[in-house]
Structures are given as C-alpha cells and as structure tokens.
Amino acid sequence: MPYDLIVVGGGVTGAGVARDAALRGLKTALVERGEPGGGATRTSTHLIHGGVRYLLYDRLTTHATCRDSGHIVRTAGDLLTRLPIVWPVYRGHARGLETVETLFEEYDRFQPMKYGRPHLRLTPEATLRLIPGLKAEGLRGALAFDEWWVDAERLAARTLDSAKAAGAEVFLHAPVEAVLRDGARAVGVRAGGRELRARLVVNAAGPWVDKVARLAGANLPLRLMKGTHLIWKDPKRVPVGLLLEAADRERYVFVIPSPLGTWVGPTDLPGPADPDEARTSDEEIQYLLDSVRRYFADWPRIPDATIVGSRPILGQPGAEKLLSRDFEVFDHEARDGVSGLLTIGGGKMSDYRVMAEAAVDAACLKLGISARGTTQNFTLDGRPVGPVPGWTPPSPALKNFLKTRPRLRELHALAHLGGALAGHLARRAAGRCPARDEDAFRERYA
Ligand SMILES: Cc1cc2nc3c(=O)[nH]c(=O)nc-3n(C[C@H](O)[C@H](O)[C@H](O)COP(=O)(O)OP(=O)(O)OC[C@H]3O[C@@H](n4cnc5c(N)ncnc54)[C@H](O)[C@@H]3O)c2cc1C
User: 12-23 and 352-367 are packed helices; what angle lies between their axes, rounded to 10 degrees?
Assistant: First the structure.
C-alpha cells in the first residue's frame, strides 16, 4: 500500500491532520477538491477565540479551546493579530453590565492560556470616545476583551506547507468521487481521476463529511447550520471589534475590522443538507443590517459583499446549544461496518490542532503505530516553540462524567457563574471594580 493515511479535505482540520500524521512519520496524502481553506474555513469569522460564551453552558469547552488557541498562537503567530473587542451594554439589554463583567472576570482566568489580556470595564463616555458614531442613548458602559484575528485561508495553506515539508503529498483540485472498497473495507479514494490507496482514509471534509462518508456507504449524525456575514470593503469602519446584542435580542453578532474588510455576522440558521446549496437570504441580510444599525444610525444599508458557509454540527435536534461546538472522531467500522475509514467531525477552527491530534491518535491506534503527536512543539515553518503557559487541566473524571451529560454540563457552568456573580457584586459594592477611561484601553492595546 503506498500510503498509511489519505486525508480528504484541505480546510484547517484536514491540513492539521496531514501535518500531524506526517510529523509522526506516517506516509500521508491529502486530497482537496479546490484550494486550501476554501470551505468553512474561508467563511468563518476568522477568530481564534477561547469561547467566552461557552462559559454560560460548557466551561470545559472554554478551557479546551483556550488551551488549543494558545498552541495556535505559538505555532502560527505570524498569521494572527490581537483584536480588542468591545461589548457595549445598554439599558434594557438581556444581559446587564454586572452579568457581562462577571463573565469576563471568569474568562480572565482562561485568557493566559491563549496569551489574552485581562478585560477592562469602560465608562459610557470612554466607550463613545473610542467608537465614534456609536449610539449614546441608554449606554451603560462596556466590557473590552481580546481574541485573535487569523488569516484563515493562509492558516490552512501554511499548515499544508508544513505537512508537505514533513513528507505529506498534497493533491489540490482533486475532488473525491469514490471511496475505493475491498469488501467492507475502505482502501483508498478516486480523486480527480487518480486512484490513491491507503491503509486508512480520514474524512476531514468539514460540512461535507456526511457527503464523503456516504460515498463509502456510511453516514454521520450531522446537521448543518448556515452562517452569513455582510462585508464592507473598508477594513476599518470601526476602530475595534464589537460584540453586539443582535436585533432579535437573543443572539450576538460580531463587527470585525480586518484586512479583508469590515465583517458583520454571523447568522446561525438551519441550512440545507448539501453545503454547496447554502445561500444568503434577504432575511439574513436584513437581520444583520438591523443588528448593526441599532447601534450605528449612519451605517450604510448596502454591503459590498456577502459570504455564507455551513457549520458542521454534531448531535441531536434540541441539544444544539449544548453540543454544537464539540468534535468527535467517528470510527465507521464500529458505527457502520465500514472498516478503514475514520471521520473527524464538528469542532471549530480555534481547536483545529487538537482535533487533528485526536484524529491521528485514533488512526495510529487502528494502524498499530505508537508515535505521539508533536504539532504543538514546532511553528508551521518548523522552528521549536517555547514552553506552554501554566494551566490546570480539568479533572479527567469530571470531564468524562460531563462529556455525555450536556444538561449537567450546563448546570456545572451556571454553578460557577453564580458563585462568581456573588463575588463580583461584593467587590463592586466595595468599589473594587471601577470603570476605566479610554487611556487605560489604549495603554492595554497600544
Ligand atoms: C459562519 C461561520 C463562522 C465561523 N466562525 C468561526 C470562528 O470565528 N472561529 C472558529 O474557531 N471557528 C469558526 N467557525 C467554524 C470553523 O469555520 C470550522 O470549524 C472550520 O473552519 C472547519 O474546518 P474544516 O477543515 O473542518 O472544514 P472546511 O474548511 O470546510 O474544509 C473542508 C474541505 O473539504 C473539501 N471537500 C469537500 N468535499 C470534498 C471532496 N469530495 N473531495 C475533496 N475535498 C472535499 C472542501 O473543499 C473544503 O476545503 C465558523 C463557521 C461558520 C460557518
């Protein structure tokens, strides 16, 4: 057999799998139907983030995501830019200032893992001076925090370059048309007219994983949620990132200034089963416009472009919020009786490295190879990286217990937040959580 592993899909996840496998010495090929990162990776909000909002229902995901984001900062730092984000809070908002600040006080505990800085509480006056044009009426103040903006397509491309440097072969513009079978066993793929054979096929096709699995007679418990962004060409329509309570007052949308323009979004709606058929609707455009124009009366009504993509969501209807950002490695031998095929599904870009590691761990187990993952030890161009910032891993017993109990996970998160809110209110009453002015903000993000 020419390859140990064939990876299907050259988004961040597939690129990460190929890199990890090649660095472990596996003979690896990757097939991608287009260009690296041209799928969900390209349509994402482009944030390497720790998942502050998961603190509301899944604290362990925030922990894991912050940790892997930290690895991405260390290994792909030249593709990342620190992005300060301001969350303005108005009278009548569903979440008030004290609740939001409590969330960020908690997030501060995780931020060092991803080289993030502690939050700042801003006065309304400072917020308005920092963000010209922001609506003043009803503004009670704001919280500022930071995430990383990433050039997502280059992250996929550079991860692939790193895989190639470690020996992987990459075939672009090579759509998988068939999974080759020998009885119940997947033994390779036909892609772009080529037949490639391997001991194991790893399906890392993002929102297309179900389509690819079906080529092998397998399937996945996947639902697709589509997400649209509106784009204005001006890269700095706002001087900082914003997180805004959306027009429906339930969700939040980002406003992200970036070299690709100013992006507003995303939406998060049930999408078609085929990601190639996802389209932006007029309602989505109106929703995002209403969301941003709630805060900026003179925001232009016509975006220069729109972009839509699909999130691959694992799990059952009704448990979306709780399960939606999990990832899982599926062994189709156990699930569907098709051996030689693994799928890595779900997850997000911010933990693409650990997703890839989990997929290659599972592949090595299947192949009887004991090599361990080393992707966290080298930059994408092969230089060794320094030590990881200190972190306390969550107890494995707690992790295992909560893994299959989403409702308890939510209670676990809420119990932490309840305690934190009590502590915050006591400090606030004692005058120990002062709101700061824009100089403090500029000093932090100079
Ligand atoms: C609107 C939106 C916003 C998001 N924002 C963020 C964010 O800010 N931060 C974050 O961490 N995550 C975010 N995500 C999630 C993130 O984008 C995805 O988790 C991640 O990009 C998935 O990468 P992937 O490689 O698994 O999938 P993809 O990037 O979709 O890659 C899959 C690849 O498979 C290829 N492919 C498909 N079929 C075949 C075939 N038959 N043969 C060969 N190749 C094939 C496709 O061309 C594609 O390149 C967002 C997602 C969406 C939709």
Answer: 50
CB neighbours of residue 82 within 10 Å: 13
Pairing label, strands 139-150, 47-48? antiparallel
DSSP run (H or E) holding 125: helix 124-130
Residue whose CA lies nearest to ligand 1 atom number 27: 206
Other CB atoms within 10 A of residue 46 CB: 27
Quick check: bond before 387 cis, omega within 30? no
- For ligand 1, atom 3, name the residue with the nearest CA: 44
- Whole-number mean pLDDT of the chain? 94
The reported pTM is 0.96
Please give the number of the atom of ligand 1 that sits closest to the Cα of 229: 1
Which residue from 43, 39, 337, 360 is spatially nearest to 209, judged by alpha carbons?
39
CA of 297 to the centre of ligand 1 (A): 34
Q: Which atom of ligand 1 is nearest to the CA of 174?
A: 43
In angstroms, the CA 162 to CA 145 distance is: 32
109-130 residue pLDDT tens: 999 999 999 999 999 999 999 9
Of all residues in the chain, the percent with pLDDT exceeding 70 is 97
The SS3 of residue 68 is helix
Packing angle of the helix pair 97-110, 406-429 (nearest 10 deg): 110
Spatial distance between the Cα atoms of 223 and 409, rounded to a whole number of angstroms = 22
Expressed in percent and rounded to 5, the helix, strand and coil fractions of the chain are: 40, 25, 35
Q: Whose CA is nearest to atom 51 of ligand 1?
A: 44
Per-residue pLDDT reduced to its tens digit, 283-312? 999 999 999 999 999 999 999 999 999 998
Ligand 1 — pocket residues by CB below 6 A? Answer: 8-14, 31-34, 38-41, 43-47, 49, 175-176, 204-208, 212, 227, 266, 309-311, 347-350
What integer pLDDT is reported at residue 402 of this predicted model? Answer: 87
Residue 9 predicted with pLDDT over 80: yes
Structure tokens at 279: 């389209």
* CA 207–ligand 1 middle distance (angstroms): 6
Q: What is the pLDDT of residue 387?
A: 75
Return the best residue to mutate from 159, 228, 311, 326 for the ligand 1 pocket (most ligand atoms within 8 A of CB).
Answer: 311
Nearest CA to ligand 1 atom 10: 349
Q: For residue range 405-427, list pLDDT tens digits in order.
A: 888 989 999 999 999 999 999 99
**Which residue's alpha carbon is nearest to atom 25 within ligand 1?**
11
